[in-house]
Amino acid sequence: MSDTNTYSIRVEPTKESRLSQVDFSNLKFGAIMSDHMLVATYDDGAWQDVAVVPYGDFTVNPSMSALHYGQAIFEGIKGYKFADGTVSIFRPDKNWERFNKSAKRLQMPEVPEGIFMDGLKTLLDVDRSWVPSQEGTSLYIRPFMFATEGALGVHPSKSYTFAIITCPVGAYYSKPISLKVETYYTRAAEGGVGFSKNAGNYALSLYPTQLANDEGYDQIMWTDANEHKYVEEAGTANLIFRIGDTIITPHGDTILHGVTRRTIMELAEKWGYKAEQRKVSVQELTDGIKDGRVSEAFAAGTAATVTHISRIGYEGQDYELPPVEGREFSNKVLDYLNQLRYGKINDPFGWNFII
Ligand code: COI
User: Residue whose CA is closest, atom 5 of ligand 1?
Assistant: First the structure.
């Protein structure tokens, strides 16, 4: 996608930084936001007022359509600090592309490169001291857009707010997770909004996830809407398996096309593994776990990075995955990505976007 527009980005620094209040040795995911945020508004068919301002509340119109009809989308990106202090963002161009695909599906305006990418750069430059440097930490970056027109008729909003907020984070999951295969509730059907990162896809996961939590599982494993026979993704991340000697991830427009998932599949191919995007049935998984063909299973996402799966529950039975230590591919890919993102090795793919 190309956009030649450049936008002037006003910067209004905070008068009172909150940085000294942060305990960087104990970062919880999404608990404390950095000093600044980027905000831009869309009105009268044009983007305007692009600014980095102190993090703070929005004033919202009670009848705005994001609240009533769910025109709201978002992204998840991570920024890292190298040992020499360099700040780098991991593949934000791919998130920008996906953001605009979500926007199109939700009948929202696309956000131009001059706002999304240049805004990201300006924001991270202003808040570079918020990017943590300890192993396992990063700056989580959350671009989002919501419809702001105050009108209760069901139609695309005429006005929108685009914003980027950030927060220093530790691991989203600090240990391997267990998943319950969901065989009743549905995340997305063909032709729906499964591929888009809209707020509603997460709202609808909360109740079935709570039911899975009540049964002792950390997360759910979504299955297809038609038969509940094929694996789709977890509630908070994509899924990747090693079955036999092949690295496999479910595909299709009912799942989110994750940047981490794509990165891992690209690495698998480059490293000479067989890598496939195809349907994976729950039966293939459970049989494969029983006979040892499924040797690795993990969740892949910006927040989750690579999170090993320890156990899968299906129709009242638990299937235990092999010990994490022996998982050759997922440990290798996690280690490689950590080294790359913290600037410890060369970046042959140009994935690090240096600020
Ligand atoms: C991300 O991985 O960035 C996400 O948006 C998932 C969210 C559940 C934290």
Answer: 76
